[in-house]
Design a protein that fits this description.
There is one protein chain. With 68 residues, the protein is mainly beta. The protein has one domain. A hairpin with a 5-residue loop joins strand 1 and strand 2. The two termini are 16 Å apart.
């Protein structure tokens, strides 16, 4: 099994109105994998990418950035 090049663990996102979204979301991408995030509209896909690239901050959780 290869080492992850990206890992987001137990990510919690809270919106200004107090709604908690994706309570403890996890994402792990290993070298050589082709992955996709597929969910319905409003399922926080874009927000997870914004957290990954530092455009938004999660309430809690940990992120290991791209290790290429």
């Amino acid at each position: 099994m290869s080492q992850p090049i990206l890992e987001m663990m137990k990510i919690i996102i809270t919106y200004p109105n107090g709604v908690i979204s994706n309570n403890k979301a996890n994402l792990c991408v290993n070298r050589g994998e082709i992955d996709s995030i597929v969910k319905e509209n409003g399922a926080v896909k874009t927000t997870l990418m914004k957290i990954l690239f530092g455009l938004e901050t999660a309430v809690s959780g940990e992120k290991t950035g791209l290790q290429l």
